[in-house]
């Protein structure tokens, strides 16, 4: 073992001074073989997982957002009586500002600047052809008075509030039926002060479903970038029934025990680019959704053409990227790549159940790095989570052409857990070049009601994934 360590040091020194792909390949092979000799508690060097040759032109999907011209009218929240002392309520000022700027929707557009300071406010709606710009040092601070988060109708693809029957609290920043909306700045902050909402949830005294920090509905051509969102009461950023959405360069933070504080949840939306974001959350970093049971099936608004790229972060209870469990309208054409997750319950998780119906198809998940993730890859079922008694137990989802490739995980607790659904169909499930090092408790894959193909996978996958007739999707 001492000679192994000496060889390892020599390899590292050679790579650091003369980087080359053959040496990187040799080092990866050496580490893989060495891992078989190390106890499962050994910690592999995290820097190795992060080491890559930077691309001068990293791929981007930012073209989903169509550039907008400079806004004709630019004003400050202070022009509408706003006071940035962190104590004075600015709810009336924000709502007055938006009402004024609505008149420029078709006259060159408008921009509302938020200067440095702390601007306390209840919820407010946006308008079309509009930019909300937070200067450096600016904080939009959410009111802790639930009355300043009015109750609105439930989403038609959910049929009720996600947590409670009936309506739901509006998001802090909200919009419906908008186009050409930009929410950006110089790393200003939107703080939802979610603790009072989390306590209502913990204490089981919540009357209506909590509001998001930002929700846009039925909107097109949206840019959300270069800001910090923190302490959302519920899911943080929720584009629903939207198209051409770019969410880029965001920092999203919540305490790791804060309930249901998902980072970014594209829902029944098309052409969504989620790129270069850092997220710490008490739930999924990114969750792709499309409606809930019979309501989602009836509305049939799928999530499609969604790219999640260069997202990093941690969530102790959930996953780096989740697909579902609300997926009843269908989910297709999803690309997830260059994901970095640590100290989390799962890396990538596909969640569904009887009653959901719908489909998940044409999903590519590649170049995933994980450290200390309990279950790196997971398919789960059995949430027993339905909106009401009208769900159909015969409505089972369909899964087709799901590819995992180039995945490395260090110090996981378990090998992948793939729990399919009895009566549902899996076609084209493929695993290529998957390396799970230092699996502590269970190196054996757990598979139920799934089938597919696997190649270059360590530890050896379950027999359900050794069906060579199912390899056409892999070869593409």
TrEMBL record:
Question: Could you give a GO molecular-function term held by this entry?
Answer: polygalacturonase activity
Q: Which Pfam families match?
A: Glyco_hydro_28
List where in the cell it is found. Answer: Secreted, Cell wall
The protein's UniProt keywords, in alphabetical order, are: Cell wall, Glycosidase, Hydrolase, Secreted
The record's listing under InterPro entries reads: GH28_Enzymes (IPR051801), Glyco_hydro_28 (IPR000743), PbH1 (IPR006626), Pectin_lyas_fold (IPR012334), Pectin_lyase_fold/virulence (IPR011050)
Q: Which domain of life is it from?
A: Eukaryota
Please give the chief subcellular localization of this protein. Answer: secreted
Keyword Oxidoreductase present in the record's keywords: the answer is no
List the SUPFAM superfamilies hit by this protein, alphabetically.
Answer: Pectin lyase-like
GO BP term, example? carbohydrate metabolic process
- PANTHER family listed in its UniProt record: PECTIN LYASE-LIKE SUPERFAMILY PROTEIN, PECTIN LYASE-RELATED
What does the sequence similarity comment in the record state about its family? Belongs to the glycosyl hydrolase 28 family.
This protein is called what?
A: Probable polygalacturonase isoform X2
Which source organism does the UniProt entry give?
Abrus precatorius (Indian licorice)
